[in-house]
Specification:
The complex is a heterodimer of chains A (about 450) and B (about 300).
Chain A (H helix, E strand, L loop, with lengths): L2 H14 L2 H26 L5 E6 L4 H12 L13 E6 L5 H6 L5 E4 L4 H4 L3 E4 L5 H22 L4 H7 L8 E2 L2 E5 L2 H36 L2 H5 L4 H37 L1 H17 L5 H13 L7 H29 L7 H21 L6 H6 L6 H11 L3 H29 L9 H9 L3
Parallel strand pairs in A: 1-2, 1-3
Antiparallel strand pairs in A: 3-4, 5-6
Helix pairs in contact in A: 1-10, 2-10, 2-11, 6-11, 8-10, 8-13, 8-14, 8-16, 10-13, 11-12, 13-16, 13-17, 14-16, 17-18
Chain B lengths: L1 E11 L4 E11 L3 E5 L6 H8 L7 E6 L2 E2 L8 E4 L11 H11 L4 H14 L15 H13 L5 E5 L7 H16 L3 E5 L3 H7 L2 E6 L2 E7 H7 L4 E7 L2 H7 L5 E8 L2 E7 L6 H8 L4 E7 L4 H15 L2
Parallel strand pairs in B: 3-8, 3-9, 6-7, 7-8
Antiparallel strand pairs in B: 1-2, 1-4, 4-5, 9-10, 11-13, 11-14, 12-13
Helix pairs in contact in B: 2-3, 2-4
The chains are: A alpha/beta (about 450), B alpha/beta (about 300).
Amino acid sequence: MNKIGLIIKREYLNKVTKKSFILMTFLGPLLFGGLIVGVIVMSLADNKSHQVLLVDPKGWIIEEEVVKPAQFGIQRNRFVDDAQMQFFFTTKEVNETAELKSGAYTMIVVLDSLTYADGKCQLFYESVPSMVAQSKVQGELENVLEKWRVKQKGIDYNAYQSIKQSVKFQMTNVNKPTEKEEVFQKAGVGFALAIIIYFFIFMYGVQVMRGVMEEKTNRIVEVIVSSVRPFQLMMGKVIGIGLVALTQFLMWIVLTGVIVSIGSFIYKDKLVSGAALVQQQGGITKGVPQPAVDELMDNQVINFFYDIPVADLLFSFIFFFIGGYLIYASLFAAIGAAVDQEADTQQFMMPVTLPLIFAYIVSVMMMNNPDGSIGTIFSIIPLTSPIVMMIKVAIGAPLWLRIVSMFVLVVSFIFFIWLAARIYRVGILMYGKKTTYKELWKWIRYSG
Amino acid sequence: MYTIEARHIHKSYATHKALNDVSIEVPSGSVFGLLGPNGAGKTTLIRIINQITGPDEGEVFFEGEHLQPKHVEHIGYLPEERGLYKKMKVGEQCMYLAQLKGLSAKDAKGRLNDWFERFGITSWWDKKVEDLSKGMAQKIQFITTVLHEPRLLILDEPFSGFDPINAELIRNEMLRLKNAGTTIILSTHDMGSVDTLCDNIALINRSQVILEGAVKEIKNRFRTRTYELAFVGAGMDLGIGLWGDYQLLSTTPKDDMHIAHIRLPENKQLNDLLAALIPHISIVSVNELIPDMDQIFIEAVKKFNAEHE
């Protein structure tokens, strides 16, 4: 069998049979899947029921929305009670603390003389109401206050309603006219992948470094390099551990998929009722058109993973992960070879981790403007491109950018592997001396 | 036929010259002692032969061929600073190292079983290396060094860390391998083992070979024509017998005898000495004082250092 193959095999089997790897592989998706399902369930379905007391000293809202409909014997269309929320009204001042402590109400909204004009009012609670509950009350208030202001201006409210029109973009990328774009949402998916690459490069790069140091301090390295060339040993380790990372990633995808499917099946009812709640509220909230809400819901819950270029992203993820990993892992291997003990790694870790962290910061900034030129620049620079390119690809990077970025990455990882190998082959046999940058430079130029 | 022939090897590191025009010839089937003080350049030379590092100048031949990567499969190397993967199981580790040397998994398994039986350590197969004592780990290291039946075995301080019983075990294995035709390069400070094991030596000091050749020949070279004579009789009588150019170095009484160290002049043989003495004293025994490698080592290094100071 090829010797580098043997080294890869040892590294791979050694790592994937470790308890920590197995634990991470199964815990990761539980965490991710649990988080995804959990966030959706929690944010949409608030099964707590609320008793909301509206304190309205001016009394106009109560008069218009509650008293008058009751007088005419018609169903009111604002502050409608349902299973989750009952509304109570008063024009008198109340002791909020006492009322809440008595358990009669879960939320008390207090309007004052200025609220009708500026919209500011106070919300008292004992435990923070969910976003859904808050925004429902908020939506109701916004609507009635709008009605009051319209009347103040002497405009007919029904006429006002009929001319109110919101604007919605139908976004079209001229390069892909058939494709609908939800740029920010896609950028979010890209960002998630970028984080995974960042995390994996860091985690597995450090493992490469530890492995090299282990071989060096164990003194087994001299035995092995008498059988194989140092370059083979280094690459065997880098590739072996890289395959472990890919294995873990693929396992995560599969397991997360399974957990999300199971989760969304179990919580189906809650998701649907949550969706209904948001839709109902959306329909009566100004400014957010119904279709957008539908779309949001669809994407969030069901179509989240289907509306993105999966194959394209997966390919790019694997390509850029491998490229970035090769660069950083070989640098980490060089660090491991250059030092005798973990404490000495600090001085060399710094310049290697900085660009990685910088790439992360750039991708956070890109979330505001995914199509900006800052992202384009850093998706070409090879030390940041593996992370930044994920967002670019997710929102649909142009072909030229992909080609340039991939080309630069390939050239770079060849260069960095070469560079690392030159440090590695000298470093693994050097003991006892604290290595300086000057020394590293000598090693690099060193022949033979 | 030489297993290793190194010609005019130069090797420098950033700050110092590790090897300066070093040439050695290791005859096939012999045990070659590579001697020298710490830091003399032995490990560098060994690393060059193992192709771990390359010479700046000079050439190395393996069995007459230019040293090439394919030769690593015929070389077994036990470094002075040797280790194993602590977390790996003994058997797995041996299999891995054997396969790196080019053995197939099947061959490796078969040979390992033989060796483990021979050393009586079959129960160690599934143990983790970190659970082994130092001596146990050394045995494993020795096995993995010789498992692929190398034609050249390079042992750097093989006896350090062994108790006498295990050292004897390794010594016997070395002799067995030598008799089977294996060439052995032995780098050591243990001059006793050089005396008993080595056929040839090279003494490296300050990056240069300062002494080389067959052990017998070197010992000859360092002979001082000095004899140890045990006799019964008065010291005075010895003096009477020793006229002419004989040089009496010392006499010491021992029990009812005297022990004298006498150096012969160039024109006299042992027989002449005996002929001169027999009339005066009764001789109990006579031995030539042959210098041991320890003395030769110290003398050669001191002389070289004095000349180059």
